[in-house]
Amino acid sequence: MQLFKFKEISQNNLIIVFSFFLTTFYNFQYFEVLKNWIYVSHTPRIYFLLIFQLLLIINLIFITLIAHNRFIKFLLISILLISTISAYFIDTYKVIINEEMLFNAIETNWNEVSDLMSLEFSLYLFFLFLIPSIFIYKLQIKKSNYKKQLKTISFSLFLYISILSLMLFFASSFFSSFLRDQKHINYYANPINTFDAIIGIISDTNNKILPHKIIGLDAKKNNSDKRNIVIMIVGETARADRFALNDYPRNTNPKLLERELVNFSNVYSCATNTRLSVPCMFSHKDREDFDVKKFKYTDNVLDILDRVGVKILWRDNNSSSKNVADRVIFESFLSSDLNPVCDNECRDEGMVIGLEKFIRANKEDDVLIVLHSMGSHGPAYYQRVPDERKLFFPECKTNQLEKCTKQELTNSYDNTIVYTDFFIDKVIKFLETYKQKANVHMIYVSDHGESLGENSLYLHGLPYFIAPVEQKHVPLIYWTNNMNSYEVASKKSTKKHSHDNIFHSLLGLYGVETSLYKKDLDLFTN
């Protein structure tokens, strides 16, 4: 059979052809964003070709450095697989593949992965991975001795680096400005950014284990006339501007609009992804100083509250607690083993069932229960909501969001907010059964927002400094039977706040005194 029989090709020529193919066919979104920028900024079109050459040269240098000898086919096919997966997500959802995005992917559970699979993904794998891989596998590579090969590689690298240097020298003013000021474009470069993120993850993995740092040893809890029962809901991917409480024209909050509660309308997340935002909101560090690598080895507000006698339970219907609940009671509600409300997936409302047992078991103590919800997790928004809870139709019933109409996408996402409204109300109803004997508090705050096609962006996870407001502006809702806390919160509800407030507000609710507590960041107490 002669179908895949090709002439011999040298290793160097294979790398050149492969790099050109990779640069041309795996960077559609990069070149689309670049083209739009050149048009808007009135930059001469010749610079489009210069930037193409720049990316090609960088890919040539990168591949020449890592692809050697008998492993070249394996390495090139591996690069194809990584580049194909990256190209699919970049082209489809306009996301940036960086270290944080890869960490999110690693921590994603199978249900979330299945949301992202599609026919289009299969086509990407077939045309951009399978066919080129077969071609590479069947190629006959000319054999050469080690000394000659090393000489060829050295000359090639010298040539590529010389060309790169000349380009940067003769167009230095353009490239220095472009590389400095247009980072949002360069973040789409494939596969350079992906491999940079992989190297970063490997580097983080190899970092030595740090000793655990205990903080707040001076903390003490003041006794109150009634015990405090707090349920904090950590939302997922909820946008503040889609809540009717924030003047969204649709009634996405039919239950909460009927309640006396405090809606904080001007709150911003610590980050644009769950891996950073969730631990950040429980950390004593503010957004600017927060280091997720150190967080794992440092006490957070749950540890401080646990040490002063607050009984804590974390229930999770999401991927995990992101190390927040490593030292308190943790229960996963992702399966029917614990969650009694499951159909095609387990529902957030199931986390409320059975909470009375935990409260009863700690009947003399202050209690904090954290419910980490699946919320509005995309892109399969339509799967997040039981059919009987949906109000808006027709829905976007695919994970290929760009194929849906704007109205369909709006309907499917808004239905997740309606279900969140139902879930929050269910938690409040549960707490109302204890309001005669305890100070009861419900806090809802989302981890980050979501892009729904604005400026052709979808999902979330963009670097914070370039992320649109839709990915950062989050809802924060507070309900209580304590009139003092209600009045304090009401006075602060329209001011600008962030996840930085959560640590101090939780300490304040339990009357905890510590040098770490900042009164001006407490949303609920004087």
CATH H-level homologous superfamily name of the largest domain: Alkaline Phosphatase, subunit A
Based on Cα principal axes, name the global outline: elongated
First-to-last CA distance: 82 Å
Low-confidence stretches: none
Q: Domain count, please report it.
A: 2
Strand order of the largest sheet: 7-6-8-4-9-12-5-13
The profile of the biggest β sheet is:
8 strands, mixed
The share of residues in extended strands comes to 5-15%
- Give the CATH level 1 class of the largest domain: Alpha Beta
Q: What's the gyration radius in Å? A: 27 Å
**Number of separate helices:** 18
What's the pLDDT, averaged over the residues? 93
Question: Which helices and strands, and how do they pair?
Answer:
Blueprint: E1 8-9, H1 11-25, H2 28-41, H3 46-66, H4 72-93, H5 99-106, H6 110-116, H7 119-138, E2 140-141, H8 146-170, H9 172-181, H10 183-186, H11 192-205, E3 220-221, E4 227-235, E5 262-268, H12 274-282, H13 292-295, H14 301-307, E6 311-316, E7 329-332, H15 355-361, E8 367-372, H16 406-432, E9 438-446, E10 451-452, E11 458-459, E12 473-480, H17 483-492, E13 497-498, H18 500-509, E14 512-513
Parallel strand pairs: 1-2, 4-8, 4-9, 5-13, 6-7, 6-8
Antiparallel strand pairs: 3-14, 5-12, 9-12, 10-11
Helix pairs in contact: 1-3, 3-8, 4-7, 5-11, 8-9
